[in-house]
Every structure is written in structure tokens, then in C-alpha cells.
Specification:
28% strand, 3-stranded antiparallel β-sheet, two-stranded antiparallel sheet, alpha+beta, HU Protein, Chain A, 5 strands
Length: 95
């Protein structure tokens, strides 16, 4: 499901306009971004947890040239799904 399809689903489910549903999605995304930028995590019980993980500097190998290189430290975003999401994934109807 892409963003437009999800917007339509949300609008129908909440009995609101598509524009209002799209604004809700955008506000949620902007909220998560703002919290992550502040170095905090977002914990939504039943849904999941968004948080940053600091990755240390490490040695790597360029797969094309086999040349060794140093990968600088960086922050990686992690999402850990909540139990309801995990259960839904395990019970999903597959095509």
C-alpha cells in the first residue's frame, strides 16, 4: 500500500476528507522526525518504537575494488515493531 492508498484508507476509516487524512499522516511523520532530531525516541505501545543507534567508526571493504576503507561514525534509525504489529504480520494473508 502506498501513501495515497493509505491516505484514502485513513480518510474512509476516520470519516474525514482525504486532505485531512493526508495532513494527519504528514503531522505524524514530522512529529517523529522532530523527536528523533532531538535525540529522543518515540514509543507507541502496540505499534512500535523509533529510536537512533550510534554506529562507531569501522573498517569496510569496497565490494567492487576490494579496497579497504574507513566507514565514519553515523547515526542509524531503528524501528522495532510492537506486539500487535508482529501478530498482524504473522497472521497476514499472503498473495
Amino acid at each position: 500500500m502506498n501513501k495515497e492508498e493509505f491516505t484514502n484508507f485513513l480518510a474512509k476509516k476516520m470519516s474525514v476528507t482525504k486532505k485531512s487524512a493526508e495532513e494527519s499522516i504528514s503531522t505524524f511523520v514530522e512529529g517523529v522526525i522532530s523527536v528523533i532530531e532531538e535525540g529522543e525516541s518515540v514509543n507507541l505501545i502496540g505499534f512500535g518504537n523509533f529510536h537512533s543507534i550510534h554506529m562507531k567508526e569501522r573498517e569496510g571493504v569496497n565490494p567492487k575494488t576490494k579496497e579497504r576503507m574507513t566507514i565514519p561514525p553515523y547515526w542509524k534509525l531503528s524501528f522495532k515493531a510492537g506486539q500487535r504489529i508482529k501478530d498482524a504480520a504473522n497472521n497476514a494473508k499472503r498473495k
